[in-house]
Design a protein that fits this description.
Elements: H1 8-14, H2 16-26, E1 57-66, E2 72-86, E3 89-102, H3 108-116, E4 125-127, E5 133-136, H4 143-156, H5 163-180, E6 195-202, E7 211-220, E8 227-239, E9 242-254, H6 256-260
Antiparallel strand pairs: 1-2, 1-9, 2-3, 3-4, 4-5, 6-7, 7-8, 8-9
């Protein structure tokens, strides 16, 4: 029987590396709530009661992923959100208000699909009394992601596409899929645990002695331009010396109109 283990290069070429990073992130102590709606292990929360603004908030999620040639794809999605009290916890409702995608010209068609993706199914999100995510709706990849997969398959089957562009297209679709799944949002997005924390997950590779995924999280409090809170997650995947970095930032800010009041 053929071994199920893959070489480091084969993993990158198949687009599986991005999924490995996603799986590792989902196992982190600061990951989003489990599918059953039970909160992940709690992170230390800032002192004092959770008392969020109930209106005039914008949640911005920025995702940057490296491509095989060293270039970066960056996607920023802005949501208008409202937090309301429900029982002992909170409910977060929101709507997508803006999308920006920065990608190489060879992936312009895929970037446009990502810009048009409605991102339905994310809200509502439920928080416990401390402001930590306890459950959220599962977002099933929609038609737009399916269109992107089809486009990549067509490109890969075309003799006119360079090998590097094929790899870029595969990496871009991996990002689309992780966007659709929301990459297991950290449970403390709405009230970040302040400071820096990290963890390392070892990987077993067929062609290298070492493989690992390192996850670094850093939470921040109020800041400039009306920022209420922010949390950064950096996932570094190293497969036999082939190193890729994914950077994510969730930032909650007061909308400009709310700041002016």
């Amino acid at each position: 029987m053929k071994s199920r283990r893959m070489t480091g290069k084969a993993i990158w070429r198949s687009g599986t590396a991005a999924m490995l990073a996603l799986v590792a992130a989902s196992g982190a102590a600061a990951s989003g709530a489990a599918a059953a709606g039970i909160a992940a292990a709690a992170s230390p929360m800032p002192p004092g009661a959770f008392n969020p603004p109930t209106s005039g908030l914008v949640l911005t999620r920025t995702l940057s992923r490296g491509l095989p040639d060293g270039k970066i794809i960056t996607t920023r999605r802005d949501y208008e959100v409202r937090i309301s009290r429900i029982g002992e916890g909170y409910r977060v409702d929101g709507a997508l208000i803006d999308v920006a995608v920065d990608a190489p010209p060879s992936l312009a068609g895929l970037a446009e699909i990502e810009r048009r993706r409605p991102d339905a199914g994310l809200f509502p999100i439920y928080l416990d009394a401390s402001g930590s995510i306890v459950s959220k709706r599962e977002d099933v990849p929609g038609t737009a992601v399916g269109q992107a997969v089809t486009l990549v398959s067509q490109r890969i089957g075309s003799s006119g596409l360079a090998a590097l562009d094929m790899l870029q297209a595969q990496a871009f679709v991996a990002q689309l899929r992780s966007n659709a799944a929301h990459s297991n949002w950290p449970s403390d997005v709405f009230r970040p645990a302040l400071g820096r924390r990290s963890e390392v997950h070892r990987l077993e590779l067929a062609d290298a002695a070492d493989g690992e995924v390192t996850i670094v999280m850093e939470g921040q409090g109020p800041g400039p331009a009306g920022r209420v809170a922010a949390i950064d997650r950096i996932v570094t995947t190293d497969l036999g010396g082939d190193r890729r970095v994914t950077r994510e930032r969730w930032q909650i800010s007061r909308a400009p109109a709310a700041i002016d009041r």
